UniProtKB/TrEMBL annotation:
This is Site-determining protein. It comes from Paenibacillus albidus. One of its GO terms (cellular component) is cytosol. Keywords: ATP-binding, Nucleotide-binding. Residues 27-185 form the AAA domain.
Length: 292
């Protein structure tokens, strides 16, 4: 089955009550981290696959401009990325690839800085193209770069909410808090959710979460919900070497069960805390708006 046919089948399988192009149909989530090496991209990929296994329609964007690697984690060769759509060198059917577990994704690439200098006509074209598929989704996940670059800040402040991934490592904890502090000081409306990855056990995950949450409460007057944790699991490393998502390669592993529990918690409670969804058009308008 070719790429275009796969996409047509994907779109036709969506909820018939949902109108493509409708406002606010998808919740847009950015996933970020204060530093590299905490497993952010791996979490994002497997969280997306887990939501999909629960019957949700998910689109995954690799928005890490410098170190895009979602396609590598899946063992998929992506010929086109978002940049080719912007330059009108490919259309949406070619830019969206179908990965393992039938997960639709858009690969990252270089030249993304040109996003912020699009003409009005190119911006409208880009929005219309993305809208053909994005507005049929329940969730759109953006895997951003580590740290707090101006590009990452744009993604975080334009989305409906932001997941911050950390580990129990002291530098990861410090950098995760620093990222949220920078964002909150300039955009206090951004809602965060905290995920602890590579935890030795539930107690270590709770202690890690408590350190960040207490600091945020004391110094930022900010309540950050703890979404859950993923255990340190040798199956994750094995899956990376196989270039296969661990939730598919080892569905009964501890890490896979942790992601399932985290996703269920999010669907049961976390996603209800945000009633208003801006949709892909609102996101793009905020993300790529010109600085006056």
């Amino acid at each position: 089955m070719d790429q275009a046919q796969s996409l047509r089948q994907l779109v036709s399988s969506q909820d018939p009550k949902r109108t493509p192009g409708g406002e606010g149909s998808a919740r847009i989530i950015t996933v970020c981290s204060g530093k590299g090496g905490v497993g952010k991209s791996n979490f994002t990929l497997n969280f997306a696959l887990t939501l999909k296994s629960m019957g949700k329609k998910v689109l995954l964007f690799d928005a890490d401009i410098g170190m895009a690697n979602i396609d590598v984690l899946m063992g998929v060769s992506a010929r086109y990325n978002l940049y080719h759509l912007l330059k009108r060198e490919a259309d949406i059917d070619q830019v969206i690839h179908i990965g393992p577990g039938s997960l639709p994704f858009i690969a990252g690439g270089s030249g993304m800085d040109e996003l912020f200098s699009l003409s009005e006509a190119d911006l409208n074209y880009f929005t219309a193209q993305i809208g053909q598929i994005a507005d049929t989704m329940d969730f759109i996940l953006f895997d951003t770069g580590a740290g707090i670059s101006k590009e990452t800040l744009k993604f975080i402040t334009s989305a409906d909410e932001c997941f911050v991934v950390t580990t129990p490592e002291p530098t990861a904890i410090t950098d995760a808090y620093a990222l949220m502090k920078v964002v909150h000081n300039s955009h206090p409306e951004v809602p965060f959710r905290l995920i602890v990855n590579q935890a030795g056990d539930e107690r270590e995950a709770s202690l890690t979460s408590d350190k960040i949450r207490m600091a945020a409460t004391r110094f930022l007057q900010l309540d950050i919900p703890f979404l859950g944790y993923i255990s340190s699991d040798a199956h994750v490393v094995q899956a990376v070497k196989k270039q296969t998502p661990f939730s598919l390669a080892y569905p009964n592993s501890t890490a896979s069960k942790d992601v399932q529990r985290l996703a269920m918690h999010y669907l049961d409670s976390g996603s209800r805390q945000l009633e208003k969804k801006q949709g892909i058009k609102g996101f793009i308008n905020k993300w790529l708006k010109r600085n006056k």
